[in-house]
Amino acid sequence: MSARHVLYGVAGALVARRLVSKRIHLEGPHLEWERQNYAGRTVSLEGGVVTAAGLTALGIPTALISGHVGAAQLVAAGAGGVLGYVDDTETDPGAAKGFAGHLGALARGEVTTGALKILGIGAGAAAAAVALARRRGNGSVLDWTIDTILIASSANVANLLDLRPGRALKTAAIVAAGLARRDDAGGALAAGTLAISVAQLPGDLDEREMLGDTGANALGATIGVATAAALPPARECARPASPWPPWSPLRRSRSRARHRSHPAPASPRFSGTPRGCLSAPSSAPSWGPPASFRC
Fold first, then answer.
1. Which domain holds residue 179?
2. Intra-chain end-to-end CA distance of the chain, in Å
3. Rounded to an integer, what distance in angstroms lies between the CA atom of residue 62 and that of residue 230?
4. Distance in angstroms (rounded) separating the CA atoms of residues 233 and 189
5. How many CB atoms sit inside 10 A of residue 47's CB?
6. Is beta strand 42-44 parallel, antiparallel or unpaired with respect to 34-36?
7. Which residues contact 266 (CB under 8 A, 6 or more apart)?
8. Structural domain includes residue 70
9. Any residues with CB less than 8 A from the CB of 198 and at least 6 apart, and which?
10. Is 289 within a domain?
11. Phi, psi at residue 271, to the nearest 5°?
12. Nearest Cα to 50, choosing from 169, 224, 190?
């Protein structure tokens, strides 16, 4: 990808992360962000807040390359970060936990913060998918559906990977490194995501900080937006293919029959008759290939 896109993504992500981190430190310690991880160590949610804020702000430099991708990033990462923070700061010890627990509580008529997060992230993914569909210019319902599922499920997968230190960040860094090779807005978004993931990884591995739902949902949604921006329109993937493998004689015979029924136009450089052959009948059109050769 171009150096300009890399600069937009990496610089925008790191500057936003640094500004948010400095602001948090100026406000003093946030004891309400302290949590106990799986090993019983005290970790801070600061890493998740900084990551979510940096990824959401990454939509601004991305919008300089593509306004649709930038808008999709602002909506998807912002919804994931804000609703994840609401769920992280839930103080009720008896609140439902897990995807199934929140949906079960919602079925009983209890609206939990987790249920709000699930519905809100889905709505954010749907709104981001609208922007991405308009970028392709076709407004396909199938494209919108695929992008919505991809963004929402990516946010949920990142949340599941965050059960252990470093898993979500390392996975996001690997995926972002592959997407960052693209020379478009999705590549710039992936480059910024890679920079934030690498910068946040030491604190997460040392078990000083954690992503929580705040950072993991924003991180997964960002990967979903970058991946969806790299996908071609669904109609280009729906072309019927031959049921026969490339080495099958049936596929070769059908290919030869197709070429006989629709011959390729003659090359403008071709003139005359091949050596050792008689010329074509006079009825052959002058603009196409000879009707037949008798050699």
1. 3-237
2. 53
3. 14
4. 19
5. 23
6. antiparallel
7. 287, 288, 289
8. yes
9. 173
10. no
11. -150, 145
12. 169
Q: What is the pTM of this model?
A: 0.72
Residues 79-102: tens digit of each pLDDT:
999 998 888 887 555 555 655 665
9-46 b/e (C-beta count within 10 Å ≥ 16 → b): bbebbbebbeebbeebeeeeeeeebeeeeeeeeebbbb
Q: Does residue 255 sit within a domain?
A: no
Pinpoint the alpha helices (H) of the chain: 3-26, 46-57, 59-63, 67-88, 98-107, 113-136, 141-161, 167-179, 185-205, 212-230, 234-237, 249-261
Total domains present in the chain: 1
Residue 253 located in a structural domain: no
State the pLDDT confidence band at 271, using cuts at 50, 70 and 90. very low
Q: Amino acid identity of 145?
A: T
Q: Which residues contact 27 (CB under 8 A, 6 or more apart)?
A: none
Identify the H or E element spanning 35: strand 34-36
Counting residues of the chain whose pLDDT is more than 90, the rounded percentage is 25
**Paired strand residues for 44:** 34, 209
Would you state the torsion angle of the CA atoms of residues 107, 108, 113, 118, taken in this order, to the nearest 10 degrees?
A: 0
* Each residue's pLDDT tens digit, 154-201: 999 999 998 888 899 999 999 999 998 888 888 888 988 998 898 888
